[in-house]
């Protein structure tokens, strides 16, 4: 749809061009024209940031120059105030892509631009002077490093690790502290201060031992051949590589990238943030000369450095999480998305893009192939492949010829232990004992963090809720707090019920903390490690924990999502899913799909060596298709059943959705505003004859969040473009409110 739409203005900044077209990081659609002062004519280029007088008060506002024009009447136009960047922050290709994002995700071009350019790049690209801190070793020696308070010591450690002066922000990021410790050290004279323009130094590279490519097995070879065809003819095609865990998908990507590199082109490999382990990174670094890694823990300086390196064309492979889809490669040859079913590829703030769809568009614009890989592809991707739009490639066997581990559902409805609130039922307990006594290791998966996820009052029967959110509080025993998992709210666990006043508060349900206690009590001779977002706060703690498990110092690893994916530990002979029902019963169209994916992924952690392994899944719904198909390792069977259901429900992948979420501090105002907005859209749909259904408005599933009341409605159509057209047609006519804000979530993944 958007491929061939020419821009309404010229792209080149010619000497005689008078006007720059500027977009802003605000939720409005259009570009604004500004006069280019004489001195910058012919120099300003699209992709540079500019300061412009904006609005009635002519407040200076930063915007992005996206092109140039020669309007007939320039009399009323204002002039640019300043050019911020020395060079364009992105090329024409990326400008086109961000414009597409604005159209596809119903936000403005400026909002899209603002997201894809990392903060670090914006900070460094400007010409302003910056303050840098470095260690005055002599002053430090006088005070004695060991005498410093913990936070200040962390600052010193961060600077040591960086091996170069850093800005305060960067220090705070990597030392995980506020500005206090930096100022404290500065005042003691331990930190030296210099002011200069931001510059980048070359990255310090640790030499990684080079490894040879493996000899592919016949299945892998066939897959590679199919990928090489569009690569060689340099045409766009999406290939869905559906291969069970351990079938050698990554090795196929690597050898496809080998071909790309031989053409002097670059590849982008997207992986879920959680898989950006040293293990994964090393795998690429040992095969290619220059690999850039983009993960969310990079400091601004590190990110800027990687960005510069990539845009200089000196990187062969970019490996990164979601936002790496915007890596500024110069000659992109291939994009790979590993574990394409992962929800972290969707951004949950505006623009709420999905990296898979952006990658598809980028690959299409560049005329290059896109590979999607997964053991459990999303229904969206699988349906496209089945319809022949994308090419389906299947890897049926594990490389090692080891079978997938047997998975059994354990019905806990009649297990007295589970009924009385224990997390570890009889069958899993016996299996854990057998596994550890045999020298094996165990992974226990539970999707709930905290100690007890439900605080409730036995007297009035009500859950004790967060005052800001419509959510019950979770007890965190280790911190002696009752906490809300969506806002910052935390209190001493109440002894009496805030509603009825009775001293009858009880804890209910099992979180990872309580499971850890239970494991420790039942298996005191073995070491257990918990991994969830509470224990893994510090930088590097994830790696340390996995290292301990790999070395066998820990026998039982328990945790949330964090341990479900990608880990490859040959000694794991048992995987236990403590509660398969937590996701299954969520009010979400993808609940069954997620449950299936989760069991399949978790199961992939077991039986990775000749020692074998098994998987036990505790559930109260053993007859649910998602659980039955998952225990049978039957992806295709599951898809056939589920797709039928989706068709009947008029849900994705057959229908496209856009969800509008509205929130405000006064419930009635939100209701009223939702209704008037929905009315405008309904009317526009009728008048324009666009086949869009509008569902709602209704209270959002979490009706109160962070003090805000929330309502939502959905637009549904068989073509994504239909929704875009409708939205565009009413964009300027939508009601406005100063008390109610709204966001639009296109292809929402969370209900
Ligand atoms: P997937 O990405 O499908 O889970 P991997 O690519 O991680 O699978 O492969 C699983 C394991 O098999 C890895 O340890 C990998 O090094 C190994 N492997 C992959 N392909 C081959 C091959 N052709 N020959 C030998 N070992 C292989
Ligand atoms: Zn809350």
Strand order of the largest sheet: 10-11-9-12-13-8-14
> What ligands can be seen in this structure?
adenosine-5'-diphosphate, zinc ion
Structural class given helices, strands, pairing? alpha/beta
Give the overall shape.
Answer: globular
Whole-angstrom Rg: 28 Å
N- to C-terminal distance? 28 Å
Q: How much of the sequence is in beta strands?
A: 15-25%
Structure explained in plain terms:
Helices cover 32% and strands 22% of the residues. The protein has 751 residues and is an alpha/beta fold. The longest helix is centred in the last third of the chain and has 22 residues, at 667-688. The protein is globular and about 80 Å long. The two termini are 28 Å apart. It is an enzyme of class 5 (isomerase). One of its GO terms (biological process) is DNA replication initiation. This is Replication restart protein PriA.
């Amino acid at each position: 749809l958007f491929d061939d739409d020419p821009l309404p203005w010229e792209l080149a900044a010619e000497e005689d061009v008078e006007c720059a077209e500027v977009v802003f990081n605000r939720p409005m659609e259009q570009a604004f024209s500004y006069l280019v002062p004489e001195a910058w004519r012919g120099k300003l280029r699209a992709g540079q940031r500019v300061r412009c007088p904006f609005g009635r008060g002519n407040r200076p506002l930063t915007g992005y120059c996206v092109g140039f024009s020669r309007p007939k009447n320039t009399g009323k136009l204002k002039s640019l105030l300043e050019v911020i960047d020395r060079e364009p922050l992105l090329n024409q290709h990326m400008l086109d892509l961000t414009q597409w994002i604005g159209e596809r995700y119903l936000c403005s071009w400026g909002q899209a631009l603002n997201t894809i350019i990392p903060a670090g790049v914006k900070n460094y690209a400007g010409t302003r002077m910056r303050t840098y801190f470095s260690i005055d070793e002599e002053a430090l020696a006088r005070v004695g490093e060991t005498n410093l308070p913990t936070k200040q010591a962390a600052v010193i450690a961060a600077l040591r690790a960086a091996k170069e002066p850093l800005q305060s922000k960067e220090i705070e990021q990597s030392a995980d502290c506020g500005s206090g410790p930096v100022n404290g050290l500065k005042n003691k004279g331990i930190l030296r201060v210099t002011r200069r323009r931001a510059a980048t130094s070359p990255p310090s590279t640790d030499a990684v031992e080079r490894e040879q490519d493996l000899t592919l097995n016949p299945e892998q070879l066939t897959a590679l051949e199919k990928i090489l065809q569009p690569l060689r003819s340099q045409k766009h095609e999406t290939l869905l590589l559906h291969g069970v865990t351990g079938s050698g998908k990554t090795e196929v990507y690597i050898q496809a990238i080998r071909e790309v590199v031989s053409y002097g082109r670059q590849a982008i490999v997207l992986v879920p943030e959680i898989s950006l382990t040293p293990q994964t990174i090393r795998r690429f670094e040992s095969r290619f000369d220059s690999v850039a890694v983009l993960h969310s823990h990079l400091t601004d300086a590190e990110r800027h450095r990687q960005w510069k390196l990539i845009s200089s064309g000196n990187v062969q492979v970019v490996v990164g999480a979601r936002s790496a889809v915007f890596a500024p490669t110069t000659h992109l040859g291939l994009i790979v998305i590993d574990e394409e079913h992962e929800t972290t590829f969707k951004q949950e703030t505006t623009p709420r893009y999905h990296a898979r769809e952006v990658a598809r568009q980028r690959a299409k614009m560049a005329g290059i192939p896109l590979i999607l890989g997964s053991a459990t592809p999303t229904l969206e991707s699988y349906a496209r492949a089945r319809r022949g739009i994308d090419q389906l490639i299947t890897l049926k066997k594990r490389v090692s010829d080891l079978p997938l581990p047997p998975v059994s559902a354990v019905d806990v409805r009649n297990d007295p232990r589970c009924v009385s609130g224990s997390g570890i039922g009889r069958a899993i307990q016996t299996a854990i004992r057998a596994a550890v006594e045999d020298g094996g290791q165990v992974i226990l998966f539970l999707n709930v963090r905290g100690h007890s996820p439900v605080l409730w009052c036995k007297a009035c029967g009500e859950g004790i809720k967060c005052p800001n959110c419509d959510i019950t509080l979770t007890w965190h025993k280790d911190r002696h707090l009752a906490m809300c998992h969506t806002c910052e709210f935390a209190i001493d666990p109440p002894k009496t019920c805030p509603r009825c006043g009775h001293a009858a508060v009880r804890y209910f349900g099992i979180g990872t903390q309580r499971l850890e206690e239970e494991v420790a009590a039942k298996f005191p001779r073995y070491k257990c490690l918990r991994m969830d977002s509470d224990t893994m706060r510090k930088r590097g703690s994830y790696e340390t924990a996995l290292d301990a498990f790999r070395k066998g110092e820990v026998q039982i690893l328990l945790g949330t999502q964090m341990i479900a994916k990608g880990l490859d530990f040959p000694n794991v002979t048992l995987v236990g899913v403590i509660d398969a029902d937590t996701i299954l019963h969520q009010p979400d169209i993808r609940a069954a799909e997620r449950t299936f994916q989760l069991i399949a992924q978790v199961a992939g952690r077991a039986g990775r060596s000749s020692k074998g392994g098994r998987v036990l899944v505790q559930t109260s719904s053993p007859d649910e298709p998602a659980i039955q198909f998952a225990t049978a390792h039957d992806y295709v069977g599951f898809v056939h059943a589920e797709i039928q259901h989706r068709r009947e429900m008029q849900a994705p992948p057959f229908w496209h959705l856009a969800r509008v979420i509205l929130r405000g501090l006064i419930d009635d105002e939100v209701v009223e505003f939702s209704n008037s907005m929905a009315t405008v859209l309904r009317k526009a749909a009728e008048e324009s004859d666009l086949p869009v259904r509008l569902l709602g408005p209704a209270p959002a599933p979490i009706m109160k969040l962070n003090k805000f009341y929330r309502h939502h409605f959905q637009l549904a159509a068989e073509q994504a473009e239909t929704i875009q057209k409708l939205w565009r047609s009413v964009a300027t006519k939508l009601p406005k409110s100063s008390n109610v804000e709204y966001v639009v979530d296109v292809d929402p993944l969370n209900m």
